[in-house]
Q: What sequence folds into this?
């Protein structure tokens, strides 16, 4: 930055020199921040690695937030043929209230497909369930919606439209 | 390469410096996907706080963007106008605002602006609304003209002010004289339907989507017949059963096409549209197109067109739901004037997920085509294994944020909130009301009570989270909703689910059957919606500072005094909130 000594002050001066509105106008209202749905009071992360003997060592971290009237139930769901060498296959976790974190360790042998850990809390008219797999199951690319094809620009519902998904009816084409 | 690097550095420095001078709207930078105060950036916006009417009032004072200058709007609308003193005045949530465009430091004279995040009169604008819908001069109004020139009234067609003189029966044509006549080119008829997925609720695992879709009528969907060059030959909207009769200006030709789209026409442009993003990630502005479907016309009898899941049927579902939910908003919060509803973009596509899951952002505009501006955005998760477009109440919860923000008051500090947390009353009100809007509007759409809100979303790590709640399922030791403390104060922190539950119990029994508590309150959608924009709701404050449930209950008491006894009984005796009914009405 050879010009670092003087370039920044000069640019700062130049950028601020011109007349700039100081009275905020309507257009200048900034965007709001994003409003989200409430988050579930359960969170789960599942990490793992393959040990030297070929077994999988998994660590589940369960975070309980908010109020749960019933203790959450943790379950380990093994793929066919797999065996749980260490850890409990199902457990009722103490729900001590906000920001309680529980860590559980599992060792699995002979797994040929992802192991899934599920934590559920159900009470009255409310329930939450979180599930995670190890190794993580990749998101299958099923975004493949039928293509959007160009059409001659027209107007539908007051909106200019120039692309559309081709569809057909149950009437056989007549030509 | 060296030149390019220098240029980038120079650009970055300039950008930083410009930012340091406090100019520009910065709307692209302000929005973050971390959860923060919902309106934290609106440091000088009409949301800021000011609900107290000033004294004296406009035209004697002009208090700028942050405070209302008068407590009522008269005939002035959201788009505003320029007064004789060179000031821009406009209506925002029932109060009149004013900025003096002649003041030193103003961005320029009062005139019309049409930019992505804003359409209306402003300082630094130019001239009049080119469409003539919103005259620049305060006090002037576009005069609808439905005179047929022969001493009668036109039965159909535009009224010149964005409204309609009337609409013809399905299949009839509106001629140049404004009369409904048999269509010169005959009609194209058929029926639209689409595949939809419905949830199944497992008591332990929660909601999942049934693998086999159901088929629903494509009701209320705009449809156009266009010629080979795209010119509109005829247009209509599908009926409740999805049937359509498109009247044609001339006989059908070989290259005509039929096009459906998820855009709701309004008097001043599209009211809302479901757009098709091609990539997710951070919630942001874009130029994504409107969902549309087309087919070549082989005859006047089209038969049944079924849009499949793979063809984007979810967009039709979302469109129907949002259209249905906005009906009472236009009727009860906008005085029947659809131009007073801020145009909304709903972004959804299969396989496209946002890092916010389901969310809403105001003034995060979408521009589906040049010149069409949708200032507010709702982002819907489209994960292939998630609840996607089918978590109806969650979808409408986000639309509810737009309604609350643009037509009522939202003083919520926002921020991360976990279901079950006790929230400060303004926060619990905003989240509780929007969930109520979701389940009540869904129930109205169904014609039956369904107080369940649910969603299935996936985190960045791939973890699947499902949650569900039934607001009519009851409170008590077995449920997780935390009830209020009857011995506590009016300003006590609340569980947002309890707020939703209270609103549901006040509402049900009119539009749909009463479920949950067998109470004598059946206020229904009209009363519950009107109350949001009542003078007491917009300008009063009791209990916790800011808009909350107490203000809503007070507003109900002011507007519906005959219903106060059952409301008090429900809220105090059945639901355990220490509401006292000691209201002062404006």
A:
């Amino acid at each position: 930055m050879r010009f670092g000594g003087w370039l920044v002050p000069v640019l700062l001066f130049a950028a601020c020199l011109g007349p700039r509105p100081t009275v905020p106008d309507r257009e200048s209202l900034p965007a709001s921040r994003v409003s989200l749905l409430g988050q579930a009071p359960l969170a789960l992360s599942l990490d793992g690695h393959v040990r030297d003997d070929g077994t999988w060592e998994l660590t589940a971290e369960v975070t309980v937030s908010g109020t749960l009237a019933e203790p959450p139930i943790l379950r380990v769901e093994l793929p066919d043929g797999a065996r749980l060498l260490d850890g409990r296959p199902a457990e009722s976790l103490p729900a001590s209230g906000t920001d309680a974190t529980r860590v559980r360790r599992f060792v699995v042998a002979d797994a040929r497909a992802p192991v899934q850990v599920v934590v559920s809390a159900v009470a009255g008219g409310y329930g939450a369930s979180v599930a995670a797999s190890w190794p993580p199951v990749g998101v299958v690319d099923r975004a493949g919606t039928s293509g959007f094809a160009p059409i001659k620009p027209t107007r539908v519902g007051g909106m200019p439209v120039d692309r559309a998904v081709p569809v057909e009816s149950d009437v056989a084409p007549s030509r | 390469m060296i030149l390019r690097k220098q240029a980038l550095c120079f650009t970055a420095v300039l950008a930083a410096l410009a930012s340091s001078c406090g100019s520009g709207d910065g709307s692209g930078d302000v929005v973050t996907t971390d959860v923060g105060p919902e309106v934290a950036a609106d440091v000088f916006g009409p949301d800021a706080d000011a609900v107290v009417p000033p004294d004296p009032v406009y035209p004697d004072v002009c208090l700028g963007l942050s405070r209302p200058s008068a407590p009522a709007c008269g005939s002035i609308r959201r788009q505003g106008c320029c007064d004789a003193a060179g000031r821009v005045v406009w209506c925002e949530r029932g109060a009149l605002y004013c900025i003096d465009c002649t003041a030193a430091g103003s961005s320029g004279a009062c005139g019309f602006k049409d930019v992505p995040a804003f359409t209306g009169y402003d300082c630094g604008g130019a001239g009049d609304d080119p469409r003539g819908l919103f005259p620049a001069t305060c006090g002037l109004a576009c005069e609808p003209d439905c005179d047929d020139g022969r001493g009668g009234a036109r039965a159909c067609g535009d009224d010149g002010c964005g409204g309609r003189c009337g609409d013809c029966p399905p299949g009839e044509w509106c001629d140049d004289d404004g009369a409904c006549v048999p269509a010169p080119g005959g009609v194209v008829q058929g029926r639209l339907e689409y595949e939809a997925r419905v949830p199944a609720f497992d008591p332990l695992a929660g909601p999942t989507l049934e693998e086999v879709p159901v088929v629903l009528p494509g009701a209320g969907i705009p449809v156009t017949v266009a010629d080979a060059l795209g010119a509109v030959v005829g247009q209509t909207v599908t009926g409740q059963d999805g049937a359509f009769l498109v009247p044609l200006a001339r006989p059908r030709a070989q290259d005509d096409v039929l096009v459906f789209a998820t855009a709701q026409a309004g008097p001043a442009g599209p009211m809302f549209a479901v757009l098709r993003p091609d990539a997710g990630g951070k919630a942001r502005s874009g130029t994504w197109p409107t969902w549309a479907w087309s087919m070549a016309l082989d005859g006047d009898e089209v038969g049944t067109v079924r849009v499949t899941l793979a063809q984007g049927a979810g967009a039709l579902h979302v469109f129907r739901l949002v259209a249905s939910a906005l009906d009472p908003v236009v009727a009860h919060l906008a005085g029947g004037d659809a131009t007073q509803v801020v145009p909304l973009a709903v972004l959804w596509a299969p396989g496209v997920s946002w890092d916010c899951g389901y969310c809403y952002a105001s003034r995060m505009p979408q521009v589906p085509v040049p010149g069409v501006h949708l200032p507010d955005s709702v982002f819907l998760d489209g994960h292939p294994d998630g609840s996607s477009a089918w978590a109806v109440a969650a979808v409408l919860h986000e639309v509810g944020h737009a309604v609350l923000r643009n037509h009522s008051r939202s003083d919520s500090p926002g921020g991360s909130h976990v279901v079950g947390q006790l929230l400060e009353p303004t926060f619990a009100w905003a989240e509780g009301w929007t969930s109520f809007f979701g389940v009540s509007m869904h129930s109205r759409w169904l014609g039956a009570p369904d107080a369940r809100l649910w969603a299935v979303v996936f985190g960045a790590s791939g973890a699947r989270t499902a949650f569900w709640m039934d607001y009519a399922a009851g409170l008590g030791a077995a449920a997780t909703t935390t009830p209020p403390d009857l011995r506590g104060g009016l300003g006590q922190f609340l569980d947002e689910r309890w707020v939703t539950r209270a609103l549901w119990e006040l509402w049900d029994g009119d539009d749909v059957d009463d479920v949950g508590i067998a109470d004598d309150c059946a206020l229904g959608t009209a009363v519950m919606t009107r109350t949001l924009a009542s003078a007491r709701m917009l300008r009063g404050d009791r209990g916790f500072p800011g808009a909350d449930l107490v203000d809503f209950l007070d507003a109900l008491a002011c507007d519906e005094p005959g219903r106060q006894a059952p409301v008090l009984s429900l809220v105090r005796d059945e639901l355990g909130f220490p509401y006292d009914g000691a209201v002062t009405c404006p």
